[in-house]
Amino acid sequence: MLTPEENELLCRVEGDAPMGRIFRSHWLPALLSEEVADPDGAPVRVKLLGENLVAFRDTDGRVGLIQEACPHRNASLFYGRNEESGLRCLYHGWKFDVEGNCLEMASEPAESSFCDKVKLKSYPVVEAGGFVWTYMGAPETMSEFAPPVWQPTPETNVVTTKVIVGANWAQMLEGSIDSAHSSTLHSSDMVPARVPGAQSTVTQWQRPSTDKAPRMVVQRTPYGFRYSAIRRPIKDAATHDYVRTTLFVAPYVVHIPPNNLHRSCTVHVPRDDNSTTFYFVAFGGDTVPAQEDWRKLHANRVGFDLDATYRNTRTRENDYKQDRQAMKLGNFTGIPGITNQDIVMWESMGPIVDRSHDRLGASDLAIVEFRKQMVEAACTVAAGGPAIGTTEPRMPLAKLASFEGIVPKTSDWRTLGASPEEIAINAEMAKGGAKSHAAE
Ligand code: FES
Ligand SMILES: [Fe+2]
Quick one: DSSP state of residue 98? Predict the structure, then answer.
């Protein structure tokens, strides 16, 4: 449970809200590089932290991320002409480059120097791992861009879905760190593997357990926290545990447990207080699914399941086209696609869920930790302190990894999937009184 005030601190990201300032202290995925693939191609609308922006790739291949409203009289630059190294407003022809400099003012006298005095808001941009990234904080606090969590090396294969969801970022992130729901909501897609050693395929993720009530343990880390859901395995339950370890990398990334084909991250970038851009990233070696197969699996293909702006064609208005007949025939949800199943749950809670009367159980340990940690983080920023994840010791994000496997009961869950560097840092932090606790 959170008080209404705490809920506001956790959820609100627009304007000067403390949580928004935390997001502005980190590099954020603004859009996919493929959306602005062509130099001089069509501009794209981008909404981030309540700001309406436009992205475009100029003649020289540089990507710009600028305010959507033309500084002249507020016409939208989304409709502008992208040509000759700049975006030209259709209304009176003012033209801007990727850094927001005014290049031309067709409506002003040729001798006027007014153009030099007008600049529009533009944010710095880096392309990596299939994404266009931006930093929306003060330039003097901008950290050097680090390789994204999902592309530790340039050779790593990366594929992703993208979908715009009508729900606040925090309730979506709570879904991503909620290991317990996968045994129920996704039970038709993540099936118990009754054949020993059965492997996941692109369309069916096997899991060697039928245990729907995992024991949860959590440990705070400098980047957020890691937690494990420990289940009884189908085989060797007396001596072994089936462990799925999830990492929360504040403020917006979750490393979910891998399968034998790929590793995965979910990414929750707030568009505003009430909507979020959700990316489901798979990465790794040769067994990473093809981009199209990955999007098909999640029923997140543009032109099929999504419109051209990545909005779902399954909506609350059409009850997400839930198929009750398929449910009768054995499908648990009647909703195709793991991500779609999550979206229905997230949006069904209302844009910003009221956390003042929810009833949390033992399996909600990670949710409790997330709320506590991020409300504390927002209070720290509101009091003038630094944003979570920006202070020393900092773990190189590309070294973080989640974990999934059957291990002897004697294993220390805190070390599973963790690099020696992380184990040392976390142990040091735990000595200093950081939270590490378990709920039976
Ligand atoms: S409103 Fe854009 S040039 Fe006039
Ligand atoms: Fe889910």
Answer: T
Q: How many CB atoms lie within 10 A of CB 40?
A: 17
Find, among 254, 263, 208, 200, the residue nearest to 227 by Cα: 254
Give 37 Cα–ligand 1 centroid separation in angstroms: 26
Provide the β-strand partners of residue 439: 216
Pairing of strands 403-408, 436-439: unpaired
d(CA 50, CA 8): 15
How many angstroms is it from 30 CA to the middle of ligand 1? 25
User: For the segment 53-95, what is each residue's pLDDT rounded down to a tens digit?
Assistant: 999 999 999 999 999 999 999 999 999 999 999 999 999 999 9
Q: How far is the CA of 224 from the centre of ligand 2 (A)?
A: 20
Contact 48, 28 (CB under 8 A): yes
User: Ligand 2 being an ion, which residues bring their Cβ within 5 A of it?
Assistant: 342
Q: Is the peptide bond before 139 cis (omega within 30 degrees of 0)?
A: no
Using alpha carbons, select from 68, 72, 104 the residue that is nearest to residue 85: 104
Which pLDDT tens digit goes with each residue over 368-389?
999 999 999 999 999 999 999 9
Indicate whether this model's pTM tops 0.85: yes
CA distance 256 to 342: 14
Please state the separation of Cα 155 from the chain's center in Å.
22
Question: SS3 breakdown of the chain: % helix, strand, coil, rounded to 5?
Answer: 25, 25, 50
Q: How far apart are CA 172 and CA 276, in angstroms?
A: 8
Residue 205 pLDDT greater than 70, yes or no: no
The number of the ligand 1 atom at minimal distance from the alpha carbon of 75 is 1
- Ligand 1, closest atom to CA 105? 3
In terms of Cβ atoms closer than 10 Å to its own Cβ (0-12, 13-18, 19+), residue 393 is middle
200, 259 contact by CB (below 8 A): yes
* Ligand 2 center–CA 305 separation, angstroms: 18
pLDDT in tens, 251-275: 999 999 998 899 999 999 999 999 9
- Residue among 366, 347, 38 nearest 163 (CA): 347
Pocket of ligand 1 (CB under 6 A): 70, 72-73, 75, 89, 91-94
Instruction: Provide the pairing of β-strand 125-128 with 131-134.
Output: antiparallel
How open is the CA angle 98-48-14, to the nearest 5 degrees?
A: 130
